[in-house]
């Protein structure tokens, strides 16, 4: 079992990944469905507003802080190689960094940036909104599962 500061890092990783999974799960299970039900002009405007609000310190501290913790946990794991927990810690860190942070940077953020360029009341909004919702939500499912799996793996490492 891991202990000391390493234990604290892992518990913080569980908390951060859990909070992140919860945010992503909310979007996957009802927020995007609610936005998709709006007329395209309203959906685009609402999602752009949400996307601007998401990059505020409260969420960014949790999301980026958890990514940093995942890196620290992986590095410390390679150095200390805790018996009975190393695989779980490395897999959990990799899942968060690739499946949550990486997918956000490579799939969700570019779609958000492109949507910000769409005028909500335009014909382009109607064309792009349906595909945006479908693609963004599919990638968000990946982020949700990766973040939740990180929690499971970190908790297994603590037991």
Descriptive report:
- This is Anthrone oxygenase family protein.
- Keywords: Membrane, Transmembrane, Transmembrane helix.
- InterPro entries: Anthrone_oxy.
- It holds the Pfam family Anthrone_oxy.
- It comes from Streptomyces parvulus.
- It is a single chain.
- With 159 residues, the chain is mainly α.
- The chain has one domain.
- Helix content is 87%, strand content 0%.
- It is built from five helices and no strands.
- Helix 1 crosses helix 3.
- The longest helix has 36 residues.
- The mean pLDDT is 95.
Brief digest:
InterPro entries: Anthrone_oxy. By secondary structure, this protein is mostly helical.
Mean pLDDT: 95
Major sheet details: none
Number of DSSP helical runs: 5
What is the 3D form? elongated
User: How would you spell out the order of helices and strands?
Assistant: HHHHH
Classification by helices and strands: mainly alpha
Gyration radius, to the nearest Å? 18 Å
Share in β-strands: under 5%
Low-confidence stretches: none
* Helix content percent band: over 70%
Kindly give the count of domains: 1
Number of β-strand runs: 0
Q: Top keywords for this entry?
A:
mainly alpha; 159 residues; Anthrone_oxy; elongated; 87% helix; 0% strand; 5 helices; single chain
Q: What secondary-structure arrangement, pairings included, does this model have?
A:
Layout: H1 4-36, H2 40-54, H3 57-80, H4 86-116, H5 123-158
Helix pairs in contact: 1-3, 1-5, 2-5, 3-4, 4-5
